[in-house]
Amino acid sequence: MAFFFATADDLLSVLLSVEARHSIVYTPFEHICEPRADHFLTARDLPTLFRPQPFESAGSGPGYLVTEVGTDVVLRPLPRYEGKDRWSVDQLTNPDSTVLRHGGLYGDNVLLQGEVRTAHKTRIAARLQRAFDAALRKQFIQIRAFFVGPGAEVLLDSGFRLTTAQQCPPEYDLRR
Fold this sequence. Notes:
The chain is an alpha+beta fold. It has three helices and 13 strands; from the N terminus they run βαβββββββββαββαβ.
């Protein structure tokens, strides 16, 4: 598990370096109303990476299930809601995966934390996690328990709040 602060450009560099070594697929981590999920073969195509974050908490923000190319993503059926069928894209039915929540800019002066983690100990999940961890260690600096990208470091030094949630008291923000 790795927690980080990154601008979209910081994280894109990390993701592309993982893609250069591993054939991976990104599937939005979400609940869907049709038994068909979208997939992205490169981080360049992730629809949320370069957008401001819509939620004030990192844990509520967009995320992606990351699997190796050729791994079937199994959709987990959910209870019907308002008379409609629903499915979830998550790790419960996809043990050979890791989850990427990219965090990002929220409002005028907040950079929300991101994370990459897996809930499983399969060989494939561990390999994916190690690939992300290695790329973060190589390209980011570590401040306390967080990896911090070059752009995020500039934001930190210019007074941005680097935090897990906008509503957290500032004394919990990342500081040098």
